[in-house]
Amino acid sequence: MRGLGPGLAVRRLLPLRLPPRPQRPPGPRLSSRPTVSGALDRAMDELLRRAVPATPVYELREKSPAPAEGQCADFVSFYGGLTEVAERAELLGRLAQGFGVDHGQVAEQSAGVLQLREQPREAAVLLQAEDRLRYALVPRYRGLFHHISKLDGGVRFLVQLRADLIEAQALKLVEGPHVREMNGVLKGMLTEWFSSGFLNLERVTWHSPCEVLQKISESEAVHPVKNWMDIKQRVGPYRRCYFFSHCSTPEEPLVVLHVALTSDISSNIQSIVKECPPAETEEKNKIAAAIFYSISLTQQGLQGVELGTFLIKRVVKELQQGYTGRPGPNFHDARKVYTSKALGSCKPEPWDGEVKPATWLLGKDADCARGQLPAPSPPSAAAMSNWRKDHLGASSSEPLKVIIIGRRSTTEPHRLGYAYNLCGIIPCNPSKTLQGNGPSGICLSYLLSGYTPYVKPDAVHPHPLLQRKLSEAPGVSILDQDLDYLSEGLEGRCQSPVALLFDALLRPDTDFGGNTESVLTWKLQKERAIPHVVLGRNLPGGAWHSIEGSMVTLSQGQWMGLPDLEVKDWMRRKRRGLRNSRATAGDIAHYYRDYVNKKGLGQSFVSGAVVTAVEWGIPEPSGSGAQDPSPLFQVSGFLTAEDQSQQPFSLCAHNVVLATGTSDSPARLGIPGETLPFVHHELSALEVAIRAGTVTPDSDPVLIIGAGLSAADAVLYARHYNILVIHAFRRPVDDPGLVFNQLPKMLYPEYHKVHQMMREQSILSPSPYEGYRSLPEHQLLLFKEDRQALFQDPQGLHKVFGLSLVLVLIGSHPDLSFLPGAGAHLAVDPDQPLSAKRNPIDVEPFTYQSTQQEGLYAVGPLAGDNFVRFVQGGALAVASSLLRKEARKPP
Q1: Quick check: helix, strand or coil at residue 177?
Q2: Geometric angle at alpha carbon 879, from 479 and 520, rounded to 5°
Q3: Quick one: pLDDT at residue 547?
Q4: Beta strands in 112-247 (DSSP E)
Q5: DSSP code at position 62
């Protein structure tokens, strides 16, 4: 899924919201006063001069044009690129000090008001003078905040900005009355924007999205959530959990309230938090009291904004309405509703709006909490039979046209309600199967479902050669045209001509910074639909559901979209916004899942499927003596039931499409000691260790191996928690092939910061990079059981380092073990390991069919298309090829 440039795929970055930074151990540290370099100092001054709008004169206050949106966006982008707390504090301090109230104007207007009060004048004159004084008392930075709030995601940005300001004040990085005044002004604005009229009351249940359940568990500041079963109990029978969300950020908890419905007033809070409810099903007549035992604010930037009282009042009303006219309690008696402070032996910490770190979910629970739904009960045999009849043909022997196969995994899958619909042996006289429910698999399913692309009659493509070719066949679907001819002469960031063609049709001038809309229009022609089934481990969206939701994509958000539903339009309807033109992984996962629902593709998707074998051969002749010369594939696997039993399935098809991605099997060093328990191959191991307290700022350094973006993510994550880091890699720091050289600095400042650290090789000495050491051109020889690593430097000398944890982040390989010979014979070079970057599956460039096996297709990284932006081109090529096989004439 990873790409090498901004034209591509998902990237794991640091979460937008991280728990509070731990206190550094005693020792050398940065000065408490923020200091910045000369270049950054000048950049800050220039930014503030351009971004902060000037105050219009009083007479023109309602006629002056608003500042250009780009000015405010520049401030947001620049601020987001400041990775150090001290740098952000310096910028905020300058904003407060230099762009506040014009005290000369205030004095002049005050004098005018006093003079008018001493002289008999009409009331209107005095009122106008007072209005002039009020206008002069408005600080300039308020105008900046006002205009930022109008940007997509602007309100969320201002909440985070105030959180940074509060943190900087606590660390004494910025002080003084000007800073306190700016904090008060911003608090007042947020109080208006987060008034009760803009807040939505939402109840959390066990069936709520797992992203919401995860956020609720993380935000609990009074009684930390211990594990997945704990949160299930807190939202289950005899319990209620509510939160406020803002209309601009739905499903984003702002303040969370937990309620216990009990038969009497408990004398001990532990009886509410720890003990299980009396039964799985509520009995209304046993409920006599509602105890509000926990309330937590999730956004530090909303400290002091009145939310808790409003939430309690709304929940009381909700409970009253819920029980009116029914057996059970009548909460109109205020004495029946208690907060945890009313319990005699309960001593909860007073809620002052500050968020304290909560226990994180680990293991399988963490997988579920990353956006995957709890496993539903399997449907009945009759339901499965009906599903086969409805979607695979009236006869159980009717073949599938296509099977798309997704990521293979032996871990417990999480699935949609229809995940079990293919359980059991299904004899088929085959058709098509797709393996993969990521973006390439979803796009292919969209095309195979009858959605057909045509060029808009009045569209003019900015590429003159392509426009001339398109005009030669008006009214003919792109799927029915010669893709080789259309793509000839196109150039771009991808080597696949069909991928460049489809991208040029969907996003005509995006590489030049333009926003020209697609020249394609889509028509649903059901007569062209090809029966198919999509198999995948995760929900529709594939591996995106396994990525922490608040991480942002490497690619621009607009490049993550699928046909006929742009990401920006979808996010606008969801009242969400992009962050520096990039989207969060949680939003993209939600978008892909929503795309499948909105386009009516769900009936073809089977989540939670684990494919164990794909075999092929030529079918035997039928009784009439006729023989279908095309190969027959048998796809076998299983679905894991709720009781952990494995329910097998078997499908047959004439065509199989591999869309499994490449992140199944981490690459390994192949050195002694790599299997020791402190050596890991995923960033999540560092996250777990920090949360568990096994790695702290006092621990030995963490060794991070690799020079790619995953390694950079690990460095940034460790630095955020003040963890000592040794960063080793084989390449020179000035190697032009390093991925950092392919990323624009303004879009990806965090990665260029890591590259700068790699160059300067700072080590255990007073410097901006204290606690980080870079080891370029070092070869790792072995790991020892006593947590030591032996290196060889470029001069051949050996070095030994003591470590607390090792992360080997040098890439990953696809797991095609379900294919004969693990698919090695399908690669461009059969003698070398299969690799998305260096040795992908060898496919025909305009059909994406394997050159070694008829009927077997590969799309996405398996075929060398690593960018999400370009994987859709493979789907276009496959769909065109399959339609031609069907020998159907264009309408």
Answers
A1: helix
A2: 40
A3: 63
A4: 199-203, 239-246
A5: T
**How much is the pLDDT for 662?**
55
Q: Which pLDDT tens digit goes with each residue over 300-356?
A: 889 888 888 888 888 888 887 765 444 344 444 433 344 443 333 333 333 333 333
Q: How far apart are CA 157 and CA 153, in angstroms?
A: 6
Spatial neighbors of 358 by CB under 8 A, at least 6 apart, are 217, 218, 219, 220, 221, 224, 225
The C-alpha atoms of residue 26 and residue 479 are separated, in whole angstroms, by 66
Cβ atoms 492, 500 nearer than 8 A: yes
Contact predicate 698/445, CB 8 Å: no
Strands 788-792 and 798-802 turn out to be: antiparallel
What pTM was computed for the model?
Answer: 0.51
Say which amino acid occupies 358: A
* Alpha-helix runs per DSSP H in 706-822: 709-720, 749-760
Backbone angle region of 653, left / alpha / beta, with phi > 0 → left and psi within -120 to 50 → alpha: beta
Q: In the numeric block, which tokens belong to residue 843?
A: 């496919």
**What is the sign of the dihedral through the CA atoms of 220, 222, 228 and 231?**
negative
Q: Which of 418, 317, 342, 331 is nearest to 373 (CA)?
A: 418
Per the CB < 8 A criterion, the answer to whether 290 and 331 are in contact is: yes
Pair 802, 678: CB distance under 8 Å: no
Residues of the chain with pLDDT under 70: 1-37, 63-68, 121, 267-268, 270, 274-280, 322-402, 404-437, 493, 511-514, 542-558, 573-583, 618-631, 640-645, 661-664, 744, 746-747, 761-768, 887-891
Question: What b-and-e string marks burial along 565-588, b requiring 16 or more CB atoms within 10 Å of the CB?
Answer: bbbbebbeebebbbbbbbbbbbbb
Residue 98's DSSP bridge partners are none
C-alpha pair distances (Å), 846 with each of 499, 777, 881, 882 = 9, 41, 8, 12
DSSP category for residue 807: E
Cα–Cα distance between 8 and 3 in angstroms, integer?
A: 5
Q: Where are the beta strands (DSSP E) in 247-370?
A: 255-262, 289-297, 337-339
Question: Quick check: helix, strand or coil at residue 29?
Answer: coil
Rounded Cα–Cα distance for residues 168 and 178 (Å):
14
